């Protein structure tokens, strides 16, 4: 029902600039807390006024540490399950890949989750799944939660001149406003280093042999893929010490518990 309503509203609202209109997607919020007013008029996705990793259409405050980490695990599990169900490939990148390196879980201090897809995948999602709401019931959230897949129409612009739209899609928790950033790795046919370079609109570039073939592994308890040269990619992005230093962002890595523990505990 809700899906049908969203889709019909999506049609009526076609032509608006910026992400889907607050009144067409709102869940419980009386008022929109997204920072759209202060953003460049060309920018599609708007982060909230209270935190850059929350969508202000769905929430007006940041969750506490424990609630946030539960919501992030669920966000990742439901995203991975959805893409696997549809039969599409996606892989971990950036902070999520670093979290995988340590204990196959998201870094607890980082509310940013990052995944990548191919250009074929983003095109498929944009064609068939934009604004689809997925309902998941999990052992953590027994009543279930709704997750929205929203695709940035600027995904068709391939080059990085479109600097306001480096995120191609988001998987959004409609209960908490947390989301996963989905970026596309595109081949740049005219790249000075040859035809095998993948570029993302956020400026990252990789020879494709660093990404493919992907490895199968597990993240947050769900099957996932990671880039072939994950270690080299992590060192290039975070430096060698991020792979071994057990004291980080007011957390320490406990080898026995096999997880990051806040220093206060
Ligand atoms: C997805 O739907 C939203 C809401 O209608 C719209 O703003 C956006 O342009 C659509 N994205 C694509 C890729 O068509």
What are the salient characteristics of this protein?
single chain; 265 residues; alpha+beta; Beta Polymerase, domain 2; 8-stranded mixed β-sheet; 13 strands; 26% helix; binds 2-acetamido-2-deoxy-beta-D-glucopyranose
Q: Can you characterise this structure?
A:
It is found in: Membrane. It is a single-pass membrane protein. InterPro entries: FKTN/MNN4/W02B3.4-1, LicD/FKTN/FKRP_NTP_transf. With 265 residues, the chain is of the alpha+beta class. It is 26% helix and 23% strand. It contains seven helices and 13 strands. The protein has helices spanning 2-12, 22-25, 65-86, 94-103, 119-128, 208-211, 230-238, and strands spanning 91-92, 113-118, 132-136, 145-151, 169-173, 179-187, 197-199, 205-207, 215-219, 222-226, 247-248, 251-254, 259-262. Strands 1, 2, 3, 4, 5, 6, 7 and 8 form an eight-stranded mixed beta sheet that branches. A hairpin with a 5-residue loop joins β5 (169-173) and β6 (179-187). The structure holds 2-acetamido-2-deoxy-beta-D-glucopyranose. Residues 10, 13-14, 20, 126, 130-131, 151, 153, 155 line the site of 2-acetamido-2-deoxy-beta-D-glucopyranose.
- Biggest β-sheet: count, sense, barrel? 8 strands, mixed
The rounded distance between the terminal residues' Cα atoms is: 45 Å
Count the domains. Answer: 1
The CATH architecture category equals 2-Layer Sandwich
- Looking at CATH, which topology would you report? Beta Polymerase, domain 2
Number of helices: 7
Name the bound molecules.
2-acetamido-2-deoxy-beta-D-glucopyranose
- Element-by-element helix/strand order: HHHEHEHEEEEEEHEEHEEE
- Given this structure, which CATH class is correct? Alpha Beta
Radius of gyration: 18 Å
How much is the average pLDDT?
92
């Amino acid at each position: 029902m809700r899906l049908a309503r969203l889709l019909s509203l999506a049609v009526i609202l076609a032509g608006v600039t910026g992400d889907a209109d607050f009144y067409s997607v709102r869940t419980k919020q009386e008022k929109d807390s997204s920072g759209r007013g202060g953003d460049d008029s060309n920018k599609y996705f708007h982060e909230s006024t209270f935190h850059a990793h929350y969508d202000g259409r769905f929430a007006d405050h940041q969750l506490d540490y424990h609630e946030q980490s539960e919501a992030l695990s669920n966000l990742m599990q439901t995203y991975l399950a959805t893409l696997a169900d549809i039969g599409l490939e996606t892989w971990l990148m950036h902070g999520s890949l670093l979290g995988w390196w340590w204990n196959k879980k998201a870094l607890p201090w980082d509310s940013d989750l990052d995944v990548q897809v191919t250009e074929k995948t983003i095109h498929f999602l944009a064609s068939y799944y934009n604004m689809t709401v997925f309902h998941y019931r999990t052992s953590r959230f027994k009543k279930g939660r709704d997750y929205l897949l929203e695709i940035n129409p600027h995904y068709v612009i391939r080059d990085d001149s479109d600097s306001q739209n480096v995120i191609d899609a988001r998987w959004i928790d409609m209960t908490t406003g947390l989301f996963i950033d989905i970026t596309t790795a595109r081949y740049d046919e005219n790249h000075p280093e040859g035809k095998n370079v993948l570029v993302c609109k956020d400026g990252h570039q990789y020879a494709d042999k660093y990404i493919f073939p992907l490895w199968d592994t597990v993240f947050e308890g769900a099957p996932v893929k990671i880039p072939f040269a994950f270690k080299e990619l992590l060192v290039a992005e975070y430096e060698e010490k991020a792979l071994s230093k057990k004291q980080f962002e007011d957390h320490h890595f406990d080898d026995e518990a096999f997880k990051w523990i806040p220093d206060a505990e």
